[in-house]
What does this fold into?
Amino acid sequence: MFSEFRDRIRRHWQSQALGLRLVGGYALLFILSVVVLAGLAYGLLLYFLQKPDRDFMEAQAHELAAVYRQGGAPALQETLNRGGPDERRQELLVRLADTQGQTLLLYNPDDWRPSEVRLLRTQPPPQEETWVPLGTAEDGDPLGAVVLRLSADRVLQVGMDADLREDVLESMQATFLVIALPVVLLALLGGTVLAYRALRPVRRLVDTFNAVIETGDVQTRAPAHDAQGEFAELVHLFNRMLDRIEQLVDRMRDTLDNVAHDLRTPMTRLRGRAERALHQHADDPEALRAALGDSIEAADAVLDMLRTIMEVTEAEAGTLPLRVDTEPVADLAQGVVEAYRLVADANDVTLDVHIPDDLQVTADRSRMRQVLANLIDNAVKYTPRGGHVAVRAARIDPDDGAPAVRIEVCDDGIGIPEDEQPRIWDRLYRGDQSRSEEGTGLGLSFVKAIVEAHGGEVSVESRPGDGATFCVDLPAGNGTA
It folds into this structure.
């Protein structure tokens, strides 16, 4: 039953708005803190009010015990009747009893009621000395007594009615009740203010979300000038996400623009071939077959271009799936080199490989073979007859990074002008010297995107007429020594 009630309360609490829960939680915590502090203050006040009375009763008990030990009950009675220098003795109740509970002497100037005196009679005799709280009297004043063992069969009890202390405690209780309502109101007000300020960054995030959704403007950013702690990090991550979305949108827009521009030529060529075949060779099956083959070839080129553009875009966006494993560099390069060796021989280009067998990289095997294929294809394509292309690799140990492996594809071809080198990595860019060769302008942008998706870097060193060296730096595999 209790667990069901507790679960119902928890579900109801969790269904409320976060702001309301913050206000309620803060108010409850504030009120509990005030109650604990008030209880602590009440206890301390009670202790400090009791201490003087208790010290007084203990002093009187020891003084009267000394009198009894010297002169017995008659001397004790005479001392009580005579009074003393401290008028507070008139507030004491003194009772001499035996261990069986029988009263041998009773001094009661403060007129304790029989029921209150009976509280003393019910107290068991102590071994030596003890303090006994007796609760409250019929008029509400607290009662207490010091009980002292005088001898084997005699007990002295000295009690006191703390009426002044009770008045002070009652005043404190009344004061607490008076301030209870302002405390609750202050807790609710403080909780509202703190919840409003704490949730301000969240509200701004919500406003930014709504603005982006309604306007489609991904350049909108959430203000973070007054956000602190976890909310500052949340706003920062949200703005970074918008930055990433903006970059993706810009890249997608650029890609679509480039695709629309660069596909116009092959699509126009494909349509022209088909149209000529229909008008000029409508009755020639062989000519129509040849035109159909050309159209299929042109369509395949367009599909290859689209596939490469999509892979470059995915790699740049970090969404390209990679099957990363530790791979021997020599094994990766050897298969690609063998595939291009016939092409190199046909162009009278020497193609060599210089890679230690113990070098390993952490990479996707098929993707890295595509990278090497693009670099070797370019090197062979732009190297004149009698030229030389070399593929080599070595371990590098940067001062501020993890060990890596550098793969270099070097040629002694036409080279790349310095002003074109930063642009060769752009999609669909083709330099002046490369326009004479067939190509889409996507090879190097694909290489850069794939290498960076692996956490690596790619660079080029070249001068016109002195060839080019393309460098690919990849994380070293565990087995690389």
Observations:
- DSSP finds ten helices and twelve strands in the chain.
